[in-house]
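FORM 7B: Structural annotation worksheet

SECTION A. Query
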Amino acid sequence: MLFTDMSVKELNNYIDEVVTNIREDRETTKELLDDAMKWLAKDESRHQQIGLVLSKYVETLQRSNDQLVRVVNMVSKNTSDKGLSEEDKNDLLDMISKETEKDV
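SECTION B. Predicted structure
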């Protein structure tokens, strides 16, 4: 489906879905990070075993922050007089595609 063929309602539904998925992913990642930190706190020598995993959890949280910022920027641009740029449209389509693929 082309971006121009998408109704405002459909676009808003996709944006809501993307934001919901980002929030759910963040919550899951935070829970995993909390569990890993508790396990690590029992013995500092475990850091070698779990350090890389912890860094991946933090990277996941950083990516979700970036995604939220991009969504907010796109929505903000869409409400201004300028509208979305082609790059914004492509970014949004990429995010929607990734979220749709995750659901399949």
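SECTION C. Observations
The CA atoms of residues 32 and 70 lie 25 Å apart. The two ends are 17 Å apart (CA to CA).

SECTION D. Sign-off
Analyst initials: ____
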